[in-house]
Amino acid sequence: MSLENLPQQSEEEQWLVRAISDSIIIASLETAHIAQYKLFQDQLELIKAQTSEIAALERLTIKLLLEKQELEKAMTYDKLTGLLREESIEREVFPQVDRKLKDSALYHLVYADVDDFSAVNNIEGHDRGDEALALIAEKMKESTKSGIDFLIRSNDAGDEFILIIEGDLKTAKQVGKRINLTLAEEEHFAGTPLSLSVGCAPLRGTTPELYSASKILAETRMRIAKEIKKDT
Asked: Using N-to-C axis directions, what is the helix angle for 126-143 and 117-124, rounded to 10°?
């Protein structure tokens, strides 16, 4: 049968064919859109998961940094007094002192020991002893130049302190006198005002040998001063 002899479609049939064709096209497009939307949703969920992991890593990083800072602080400063720990002076003090010594600055090491501190602990208890040490540290801060002088709690005993003072011997001795004057105005512990025996020695360098020599000399002079106090 030739094409000319094929029966002609009616308008209704033509409309139906077009409608079916359009439906097929629309269905295909909807299927493609659904697939694209699902892909988009999957990618979005992946991004959310990655973002959550990044946020968790950031929180962990911040936590570790804070813990590191707290550890460094604990290694640098004495918890009770807030003064430098003697273990930290090589890192925290010596570089600054060295620079100034090269510029001809003078430094003196002051060794200070609390008088009759055992009486405070024995009579009033260790909590009051801690209060006394904290008060002494506060008066040391008030009597020295922040950022210039350095205050250290000694490793040798809990009631001994090392002060590295910029200036000559007279300046170092005046610091000790100022601290004792301010302590005399404070509350009494074990029935008497707090006081310090001090000894001074020049600090000519920060090598272990020079620092140790200055510390030993200052401590020896402090012991002599303490004995003189007992005899008066």
From this structure: 140
Beta bridge partners of 85: 153
Helix, strand, coil % in the chain, rounded to nearest 5: 65, 15, 20
- The fold of 84-231 is Alpha-Beta Plaits (3.30.70)
Phi, psi of 165, deg, nearest 5: -110, 130
Q: Does the pTM of the predicted model rise above 0.90?
A: no
The distance between the two most distant Cα atoms of the chain, rounded to a whole number of Å, is: 143
Each residue's pLDDT tens digit, 201-217: 999 999 999 999 999 99
Tokens of 50: 């990655």
Beta strands in the chain (DSSP E): 84-85, 107-114, 150-153, 160-166, 196-202
**SS3 readout for 90-131:** HHHCHHHHHHHHHCCCCEEEEEEEECCHHHHHHHHCHHHHHH
